[in-house]
Amino acid sequence: MSRILLADDSPQALRLAEQILTSQGIEVVSVTDGAIALRRLSDVNPDLLITDVYLPSKNGFELARFLRSQPEYRHVPVIFAAAPADEFDEQDAKNAGADAVLRKPFGFSAAQRS
């Protein structure tokens, strides 16, 4: 089973992402703060990090840079989750270590619901 560390300060985004991912058989560990995400890395040992771009304490850029700087986490893919109003340069996200940018709101496709 895959394990995802999900960092987002929006309770609604967390709930929806958890629902989507767990329905696909993925284990999700959710946190609401970037500093907490860093502290949980060693015990979660995620296969993927999905992080909001803007979080309290440590933002998505800082989390991605940290993962890329650590040999034990360098292999973990990082996806930035960004609200439509979040303004940032996607190239800056890639330069920080993000593998992809996913725009909110998250949603199920018709094929996923059946």
Give your account of this protein's structure.
The protein is 39% helix and 21% strand. A five-stranded parallel sheet has the order 2-1-3-4-5, sandwiched between helices. The chain is α/β, with parallel strands linked by helices and 114 residues long. It has a single domain, classed as Response regulator (Rossmann fold, 3-Layer(aba) Sandwich). Strand 4, helix 4 and strand 5 form a beta-alpha-beta unit. It has five helices and five strands, in the order βαβαβαβαβα. It starts with a strand and ends with a helix.
Q: Could you provide a short overview of the structure?
A:
The protein is α/β, with parallel strands linked by helices.
